[in-house]
Amino acid sequence: MGAASPTPATPAPATPALAARLRDNLRAVIRGKDREVDLLITAFLAGGNVLLTDVPGTGKTTLAKAIARSIEGTFHRVQFTPDLLPADVLGGAVYDPRQGTFAMRRGPIFANVLLADEVNRASPRTQSALLEAMAEGQVSLEGETHALPRPFWVIATQNPVEHHGTYPLPEAQLDRFAVELALGYPPPEEELEVLAQHDHGGPLERLAPVAGPAEVLEVQARVRALHVDEDVSRYVVALLRASREEPRIALGVSPRGGIVLRRMAQAHAFLRGRTAALPDDVQAVAVEVLAHRLALETKARYAGVTRQGVVRDLLARVPVPT
Questions:
Q1: 193 and 241 share a domain?
Q2: How far does the chain reach from its first CA to its final CA, in angstroms?
Q3: Is 305 left (phi over 0), alpha (psi -120 to 50) or beta?
Q4: In the Cβ-directed half-sphere of 301, how many Cα atoms lie within 13 Å?
Q5: Type and span of the H or E element at 27
Q6: Do 42 and 130 share a structural domain?
Q7: Measured distance CA(195)–CA(202) in Å, rounded
Q8: Total domains, the chain
Q9: Pick from 83-87, 100-104, 147-151: least confident
Q10: Would you tell me which of 186, 228, 243, 286 could form a disulfide with 252, CB atoms 3.0–4.6 Å apart?
Q11: 299, 282 in Cβ contact below 8 A?
Q12: Paired strand residues for 227
């Protein structure tokens, strides 16, 4: 590792206002999950899509709606099923018998926030309809390219305990999610509050917008411009290379994963009011950013090794720049 930058990161006066308002809104809806909410906001400000792998009823749909309502954005939900077709997501040409012509019908993917509910229930063909949108913010229909609304954000959910009629997400699909999160059940006291909140309508109904899409885009641009010292970038590369050389791993982290890890570290630093990303920021998001990108060797998988555990081992082993 090279020498550290002579100019240390200096703390900003306060957490950026938009991030603080978003945090307050989401914490009012999702109780007792402060870290998960912060990681979700981090991914949102980094422009990264989110995969929620969790049991039913933990607030995945509510969370997606809360984000859309908070930024005054359009929200569409698609229930993925085995018979869903790519055109049901993207749209396509529809014949108008009165005019005798074809008109372009835009699908539900044309939204600021798209909830792809139970995404692993659809066939690989339909899952692949999301790839271009998630990577490039655009879709190709009838030979033409159509830009999606900005900001554009996908929250996809999958149920880890129900495997009948599901199709595992391929590596190319997983690699386009910035993070994989699990909300889990709330603590008992918070669950009591959840029950009480719904006596007079859910908290989502009382949620007010805290920003508009233009402000979100401005903050996302500030995140991308946040300083990252060369030593921090070298640390990211060292983690990627370590994942590719790890004997328990059949497929390590791609360069795209490194770009996302660096961007998430920038957003993590931004949320904490700092002017530069530090190795601590990389470590804080590494498990959620990297684990779902790894493919375990067969022996490791049957030996009970977890991808999250492998990432933690890499963080403990790879030297941290000082």
A1: no
A2: 9
A3: beta
A4: 8
A5: helix 17-29
A6: yes
A7: 9
A8: 2
A9: 100-104
A10: 243
A11: no
A12: 276
Q: Provide the edge-to-edge strand list for the sheet that holds 177-181.
A: 75-79, 113-117, 153-158, 49-53, 177-181
Which of 225, 243, 276 terminates a domain? The answer is 225
Residue where a domain stops, chosen among 225, 258, 276? 225
Tokens 């050389």 -> residue: 245
**DSSP label at 274?**
B
Amino acid found at 122: A
CB 183 within 8 A of CB 58: yes
Instruction: Choose the weakest-confidence range: 100-109, 118-127, 288-297.
Output: 100-109
Q: State the number of CA atoms in the 13 A half-sphere of 26 facing the CB.
A: 27
Same domain, 132 and 239: no
The pTM for the full model equals 0.85
Residue 144: both structure tokens together: 């033409």
Cα gap 281→285, rounded to integer Å: 7
Residue 222 DSSP symbol: H
